[in-house]
Design a protein that fits this description.
By secondary structure, the protein is of the alpha/beta class. The protein is built from 19 helices and 26 strands. It binds fructose -6-phosphate (F6R). The site of fructose -6-phosphate has 15 residues, from α9 and α17.
Length: 609
């Protein structure tokens, strides 16, 4: 949700700021801008649209400077227009970039207007710039003015500010939105995410909630929420630069789909110790905590929510533990009843999703036995704030539509299910069998990827439709939900998912020859039921695309196309069947010419509510 970057050095940093914004574009991409302080004073350049538009303007103006801040925006307050783009400036003296939302901006705006400040945007950010300017009249430094301003702001945000009274300094702050400082040699950086800084450094300070950082080219000082100097460790990242580059792939999404087999292997391996799944991987107290757990309550958003739904099926069926799952955005507003010995489990790729984080914080006050996060970013707030954590090792996910993060979350849910199942009668031999099944997931995915060419051909038949229906039963229902979400996100085709058995309770009315149906129907206990559901569709002229397995007797015919996947154990079928649905969405989007990696109106890492 918006990306910010800042740099202070002894060289021109504008090219770096632009490259940094390109890396952060997945967080928002409706307008972009940079501001610098040079011998001509405070200078800003902003452009509507992608960072590329800004880059062209900057090249034309020849703007340069040894320090600066930049921003790529996902609009919250005010349309994507140049006057709403960041940086926002107060009286040609202070410039600010900002991620997140200032909840009390309206009253602050009114107050600032009575003080004589004029507003040029509809954003909540502009109040920050004016407030800092206002405080600079009575405070002795930018740091003090920012600190005073922070006391007045309500909401979740990260900011970076510069002032022409202190041209060698950037002050940045984190409250609710991630912020990382990059340490260089006689140069320092700040950004929403390490991906923006990997070209310059591997050494990072991950700021904590409430931190303020005062940065020059020589020094970085971090203050905690109480204004005291805080020791924050410098961590060396092992993320490789090519992990955040497309390489030979046309899109990040395709690269990330293909990376799933490795990502699954990388996620499973650290959870195994001495040939057994190791609960200690979740944290030192894991064994004791899991011993006490009698129920599980799962919360997440979007794709991560779908992984939670698959998990709830597994946990009840094999783990024999009562489990419920719900959207994080709903959870904390409905006064949930918390039962004894319940584990609160959150899933999130980024670990910064505002709704999920808020649900976790609510749960921590609500009397759960413990909290557990499944997350892909080890430095994230979610990981830091949970009692236990299962780190997925999908690697950086840049495409806005989540792919490898999802299948690795499914792997994590499988493993956690086995941790619960071993307490409820699953014997060692059976557990070992499941572990072997998990080890087969990577190879199964590779076999599914071999269907890529066929799926691309089939995608042609969906590319012109306006609506589609995805069907699944049992733990294939959440996979159908995920397939539908992928299609709508990146192709803008309306896609809905239903459990096959629900068709006759309403959605059957929608079926005609213009409504393609995508069915996920492996050979499992529910396949006969699913077959009956699909016959109901065929009888009404609906066109079917069925993903089944080698063992099932579905055959392609006039109205139906069947694609066969390898036969795998039910335990990993959700992982396998996700892949063709991702590829289908991808190819449909490519045919329709949409922006696959940065679909309209969306952004990765939704750090606002
Ligand atoms: C869909 C997608 C989103 C995210 C959701 C939660 O492809 O990416 O639905 O899954 O915004 O994000 P995380 O997992 O980072 O909490």
């Amino acid at each position: 949700m918006c990306g910010l970057v800042g740099a202070i050095a002894r060289r021109d940093v504008i090219p770096f700021l632009v490259d940094g914004l390109r890396s952060l574009e997945y967080r928002g991409y409706d307008s972009a801008g940079v501001a610098t302080l040079n011998d001509k004073g405070l200078y800003k350049q902003r452009a509507v649209g992608k960072v590329e538009a800004l880059a062209q303007q900057l090249a034309a103006t020849g703007m340069s400077g040894t320090m600066g801040i930049g921003h790529t925006r996902w609009a919250t307050h005010g349309r994507p227009e140049e006057n709403n783009a960041h940086p926002h400036v107060s009286t040609e003296m202070v410039a600010v970039v900002h991620n997140g939302i200032i909840e009390n901006y309206e009253e602050m705006r009114r107050e600032l207007q009575t003080l004589g400040y004029e507003f040029e945007s509809q954003t909540d950010t502009e109040v920050i710039a004016h407030r800092i300017h206002h405080h600079l009249q009575s405070q002795h430094s930018l740091l003090a003015a920012v600190t005073e301003t922070l006391k007045e702001l309500e909401g979740a945000f990260a900011i970076a500010a510069i002032s022409n009274e202190e041209p060698g300094r950037i002050v940045a702050a984190r409250r609710g939105s991630p912020l990382v400082v990059g340490i260089g040699k006689e140069e320092n950086f700040v950004a929403s995410d390490v991906t923006a800084l990997l070209s310059e450094t591997r050494d990072f300070i991950f700021l904590e909630e409430g931190d303020v950082v005062d940065m020059t080219s020589e020094a970085v000082t971090v203050y905690n929420e109480y204004g005291r100097v805080a020791e924050r460790p410098i961590q060396t990242s092992n993320v490789k630069k090519n992990a955040v580059e497309k390489g030979d792939y046309p899109h990040f999404m395709l690269k990330e789909i293909y990376e799933q087999s490795i990502a699954l292997r990388q996620t499973l391996a650290p959870a195994i110790k001495d040939e057994r799944l190791d609960e200690g991987y979740l944290g030192t107290d894991a064994e004791d905590i899991l011993d006490r757990i009698e129920r599980i309550h799962i919360c997440a958003c979007g794709t991560s929510y779908h992984a939670g739904v698959v998990g709830s099926y597994l946990l009840e069926k094999l783990g024999k533990i009562p489990c419920r799952v719900e959207h994080a955005s709903e959870y904390r507003y409905r006064s949930p009843v918390v039962t004894d010995n319940t584990l609160f489990l959150v899933l999130s790729q980024s670990g910064e999703t505002a709704d999920t984080l808020a649900a976790l914080r609510y749960a921590k006050q609500a009397g759960y036995a413990a909290t557990l996060s499944i997350c892909n970013v080890d430095s994230s707030s979610l990981v830091r704030e949970s009692d236990l954590c299962f780190l997925t090792h999908a690697g950086p996910e840049i495409g806005v539509a989540s792919t490898k993060a999802f299948t690795t979350q499914l792997m994590a849910m499988n493993i956690i299910t086995l941790f619960m199942a071993r307490r409820r009668g699953l014997d060692e031999a059976e557990e070992q069998r499941y572990l072997q099944v998990l080890k087969q997931a990577s190879a199964a995915i590779e076999a599914a990827l071999n269907l890529d060419g066929q799926i691309r051909d089939i995608a042609m038949s969906l590319a012109d439709c306006s609506h589609s229906l995805f069907l699944g039963r049992g733990n294939m229902y959440p996979i159908a939900m995920e397939g539908a979400l992928k299609l709508k996100e990146i192709s803008y085709i309306h896609a809905e998912a239903y459990p096959g058995g629900e068709l006759k309770h309403g959605p059957l009315a929608l079926i005609d020859e213009d409504m393609p149906i995508v069915a996920v129907a492996p050979k499992d206990a529910l396949q006969p039921k699913m077959k009956a559901n699909l016959q109901e569709v065929q009888a009404r002229g609906g066109k079917l695309l069925i993903f089944a397995d080698q063992g099932s007797d579905f055959e392609s015919a006039n109205q139906s196309t069947v694609l066969k996947l390898p036969t795998v154990d039910d335990f990993i079928a959700p992982i396998l069947y996700t892949v063709p649905l991702q590829l289908l969405a991808y190819h449909v989007a490519v045919i329709r010419g949409t922006n696959v990696d940065q679909p309209r109106n969306l952004a990765k890492s939704v750090t606002v509510e």
